Input
Amino acid sequence: MTAFRPPGSGGAGDPGFGIYVHWPFCASKCPYCDFNSHVRHVAPDQERFVAAFARELGTAAARVPGRTVSSIFLGGGTPSLMRPETVGAILDRIAALWPVAADCEVTLEANPTSVEAERFRGFRAAGVNRVSLGVQALDDADLKSLGRMHSVDEALRAVEIARRHFDRYSFDLIYARPGQTPEAWAAELERAIGEAAEHLSLYQLTIEPGTVFEALHKAGKLAMPDADMGRTLYDLTQDICMSAGLPAYEISNHARPGAECRHNLIYWRSGDFVGVGPGAHGRLTLGNGRIATSTERHPETWAALVETEGSGIIEEERLVQEETVDEFLVMGLRLAEGIDLKRYEALSGRVLDPERIAFLEGEGLVARMAGDRLKVTARGFPVLDAVVADLSM
Output
C-alpha cells in the first residue's frame, strides 16, 4: 500500500470532486437507522468486494476521466470493519484512476466498538487522514436504548485512539432523545466539546420510515420530545457550540474555522461526486448535463451486478434544470456561508425574486453578504424548509 499518501491538511476551496465509497456491513442494526446497512453472521468476502469496488471505480473513471479528486469518504455501514489492507487497496485504485490533490481529505467512518490502536495505525498507513466516530451519546442508558454496542468509556477510549493517530477527527452525537432534559444535554455537549479537537456532528433524533423506532413510536412505546423541547435543545446546542468556538457551518455540523468536513461541503455546494458500493448515490456533470446515480442496495446482488456489467448502477436520472436549481438552493442554504446568487442565476437563467428576499430579510430570516451571497440567519435555520419554499415561489 504505497501509491496513496495524501497529507492531512488543505483548504476547502471550490466545490471540488469527491469519491464516496459505501461499505454496507454492520455488526448490528441500530433501531433508529435507515441507512443501507446489513448484518452478516458470516464475515463478508472482502477480497470479492475489493475487486468489485475496483471494477466499479474503473467504470466511473471512464465516464469522468481526468478530474482531480479533492475528497474521499468511506461511509456505511461500518467502514472500520474493513481490514486496513482493504481500505488501502480501494485508495490505491482511486489514485491509479484519477489525479489526487496533494491535500485530499480522506475520511473513514468508525464505530467505537471496532476501534483499536493497531487497526487505526493501519488505516493511517493506508492513506486515511481523517476519521469520523459514531459515538452518538455520552450516557450509557441512552446508548443502550439507541442500540449501540459500546459504552461511554469505550467511546472515549476510541476518541483518544483517534487523537493519537489522526490530526483530524470528528464524532457524532444524537440529541433530543426520549426524556432528555436541557440540563442533561448541556452537560453532555460540554463534555463532548472537551474531547472534540475540531469538529462535531450533532443531529436531532428523528423517526425514520421502516425503522424499529418507527414501529415503537406508532405503538406508543417511544415518546419523543415535542416541538418546543426540540427547539429549546437546538438553540442550546447553537449557544454552547458558538461559545466554545465551534460554530455551525451547516445546520447539524459544527467546526472550528478551517476544520469543516470538505467532503460534505462538496454535497452542500452542489459539486460532483462518484458514488460506488451498495446503495451509493452520485452526482456527475457530463456532456448532456447533470445526472444522479443510484446503485443496487443489496450487497451481494450489487457485487454480482458489477462482476457482470462493470457497475452496480440501477438508476440514472438526468436532472432537468429545475431539479438542479432546487437542489442547489436546498443544499446551499443549509450552509452558514449561504449561496452565490450569481451561480444561482447562471444555473437557473433567472434571479431570485428581490421582493421575496426583501420580505425574508425584514423578518430576520435571511441576510445578504459581500460578494453577492445570500444566507439563512441563525433565526432562519430552525425554519429552513419554510424559507426555501418561500424563496422558490
User: Anything to note?
Assistant: Confidence is low (pLDDT under 50) at residues 1-13.
